[in-house]
Specification:
- The relative contact order is 0.12.
- The longest helix is centred in the middle third of the chain and has 20 residues.
- This protein is globular.
- The protein contains ten helices and eight strands.
- It is of the alpha+beta class and 280 residues long.
- 32% of the residues lie in helices and 16% in strands.
- The strands form two sheets. The chain has a six-stranded mixed β-sheet, covered by helices on one side. It has a two-stranded antiparallel sheet with strand order 7-8.
- It binds adenosine-5'-diphosphate and magnesium ion (MG).
- The site of adenosine-5'-diphosphate (ADP) has 19 residues, from strand 2, strand 3, strand 4 and strand 6.
- This is Protein kinase domain-containing protein.
- It comes from Pagothenia borchgrevinki (Bald rockcod).
- Keywords: ATP-binding, Kinase, Nucleotide-binding, Serine/threonine-protein kinase, Transferase.
């Protein structure tokens, strides 16, 4: 299939006014931009072609283009120039998940459960469409807008294969959210996202990560053995239901780990077992 809706431009600045940089990684930079023709604001992800020499980007873009979910950042358009690919993404303005939690005075299990439910619904939808995110972490969970009850949006997915976000680059970057089987370089699947959601849930409830080691080798071996605990006193007042949810999401064995469908049926998500008292 060829990418029939791809647009070419000799200079992306003919199409957009650049407003400011929102983020940058090793393969890409993200800018806030205004489309000149319509005045609409977007997040523009700029990828250097030289990093994508043998990639399958256009096929992956064709998949992303069809992705539409209320908790998933939408891909609106796609440009290429001689040197770059440009992904025009829906702009969300509420900031990253953890930044807001730090600002919030009161935080409850119920708040965490409602955030995780939205993440599960988004990731479940991606999985149904055969997309494994592979890089789920707090920086990729964004609030839709600045309202107190704004929904959560999952971003930065679908290009992970192309950008080799897999074993190597993750191992060089933030391994704290990566599943044991990824570090062990075994073939992996949708269940790696469920592990990451377990890690994010853990942090939401206690404020520190399940694995922390200054030494990367020790960190890797702790993750590979799924060696985490619910330490006293930090976890004393957290419900047994929350811990059960995390144990199922962070199961060392991927074949016994929850998939999103099971996770969405767990009482901590589906029923009222998440406590509604301040844990911040
Ligand atoms: P990277 O590959 O560099 O991680 P991301 O797509 O995660 O790229 O974007 C980097 C940062 O830019 C994010 O952590 C987020 O703060 C911001 N960002 C990304 N996409 C959007 C968006 N659609 N709306 C608003 N901010 C965004
Ligand atoms: Mg990112």
């Amino acid at each position: 299939i060829i990418c029939s809706w791809k647009k070419s431009t000799s200079n992306i600045r003919d199409v957009f006014d650049f407003k400011g940089k929102m983020g940058s990684g090793s393969f890409s930079e993200v800018f806030m931009v205004r489309e000149k023709r319509t005045g609409k604001m977007y997040a523009l992800k700029c990828l250097k072609k030289k990093h994508l020499a043998h990639s399958n980007l256009e096929n992956e873009i064709n998949v992303l283009r069809r992705i539409q979910h209320e908790n998933v950042v939408g891909l609106e358009d796609f440009y290429e120039s001689r040197t770059h690919y440009y992904l025009v993404m829906q702009l969300v303005s509420g900031g990253e998940l953890f930044d807001r939690i730090l600002d919030k005075g009161v935080y409850t299990e119920k708040d965490a459960s409602m955030v995780i439910k939205q993440v599960l619904q988004a990731v479940s939808y991606l999985h149904e469409n055969s997309i494994v995110h592979r890089d789920l972490k707090p920086e990729n969970l964004l609030y839709y807008n600045t309202d107190e009850n704004a929904k959560i949006m999952v971003s930065d997915f679908g290009l992970s294969k192309t950008l080799e976000h897999g074993v190597m680059s993750t191992a060089c970057g933030t391994p704290g959210y990566v599943a044991p089987e990824v570090l062990a370089q075994r073939p992996y699947s949708k269940t790696v996202d469920c592990w990451s959601i377990g890690v994010i849930t853990y942090i939401l409830l206690c404020g520190y990560p399940p694995f922390f080691e200054d030494n990367e080798t020790r960190l890797f071996s702790k993750i590979m053995r799924a060696e985490y605990a619910f330490h006293s006193p930090f976890w004393d007042d957290i419900s047994e239901s929350a811990k059960d949810f995390i144990r199922n999401m962070m199961h060392k064995n991927p074949t016994r780990r929850f998939l999103t469908e099971q996770a969405l049926r767990h009482p901590w998500i589906a029923e009222n077992t998440a406590k509604d008292v301040d844990i911040s």
